[in-house]
Design brief:
Elements (H helix, E strand, L loop, with lengths): L2 E2 L3 H13 L5 E7 L9 H7 L4 E6 L6 H11 L4 E5 L11 H8 L1 H9 L7 E7 L5 H9 L17 E4 L4 E5 L7 E2 L2 H10 L9 H15 L1 H7 L9 H11 L3 E2 L3 E2 L1 H13 L12
């Protein structure tokens, strides 16, 4: 499943991030807590360099808490801090300002020594499509300035958003890297909705998701769909799930289009359970 998907606005975004880094004090990178590796655009590492950074593991309410903590320990560095958040409910967001102040302590002390009192911290917010950037920004700003949507690619242009806590946020469109060489990375992005369903074979994707869940969370899969046991064949399990949900068409055949949509939607909504697809 080699996927090439690099729309023109993403090329512009990469260039804009590089140019605008000089305007900000720090970077907030938002990742999906269920796929911290796949949702980490390797372009961001090279673009941000040594700029102080906070990694927000968003949608942590949908992830396995123990694995999320392991990721937090793994990703934390001298100039990189990690927080688990739920941007929809605002959980974890209050930790951001004190961590920013700590990361920028020396810089702020130099500014205060020069007589500056009201210091505004300017931060660039980056992340791949559909990871929750706009929802996070709206929560920080306490209004709906940034556009939100459940589809990747909603934010198209750079915009500045002021908050009431002395932080200004620069929103940028989500960018994915040009090509996914690793099938697991591509699948994890597709499972969580970071890649548009329109360019994917959703029936194949649902089959692959069943296969993955059989390996990492078989009990959750069986429980959600009331299966007495799981077969060794993912297709048999998908068929059984379809029958349980009444996804049958004329002649008693499986409606794969319908059950695939249901399965992907329920996984993305956390209805199958708190599941992290990657370990550090």
């Amino acid at each position: 499943m080699a996927i090439n998907w690099f729309p023109g606005h993403m090329v512009k975004t990469k260039r804009a991030i590089k140019e605008n880094l000089t305007l900000v004090d720090a970077v907030i990178e938002i990742r999906d807590a269920r796929i911290p590796r796949a949702s980490a655009n390797p372009e961001i590492d090279s673009l941000c360099g040594n700029k102080p950074r906070i990694i927000l593991l968003n949608k942590s309410d949908l992830s396995d808490k123990n694995i999320t903590r392991a990721w937090m320990n793994s990703l934390t560095k001298e100039n990189v801090r990690v927080i688990e958040i739920n941007s929809l409910k605002g959980e974890g967001i209050k930790q951001i300002k004190p961590i920013l102040l700590d990361l920028l302590k020396e810089k702020h002390e130099r500014l205060k020594a020069k007589g500056l009192v009201n210091i505004v911290t300017r931060v660039m917010v980056v992340g791949i499509p559909n990871v929750g950037k706009s929802t996070f920004i709206n929560k920080m700003a306490k209004n709906n300035i940034a556009k939100t949507g459940d589809r990747p690619g909603v934010t198209k242009t750079k915009q500045w958003i002021k908050t009431s806590i002395g932080i200004e946020l620069m929103d940028t469109p989500g960018i994915l890297w040009p090509k996914f060489e690793d099938e697991d990375v591509a699948l994890n992005l597709a499972f969580t909705g970071a890649i548009k369903d329109e360019i994917m074979d959703t029936e194949e994707l649902a089959f692959k998701l069943v296969e993955r869940l059989m390996n990492i969370k078989p009990d959750a899969l069986a429980t959600r769909y009331k299966l007495d046991s799981l077969d060794e064949d993912p297709l048999v399990n998908l068929d059984n799930i379809a029958r349980k949900r009444g996804c049958i068409i004329s002649g008693g055949n499986i409606d794969y289009n319908r059950i695939s949509a249901i399965l992907l939607d329920e996984f993305r909504g956390g209805k199958i359970g708190n599941i992290t697809l990657e370990r550090p």
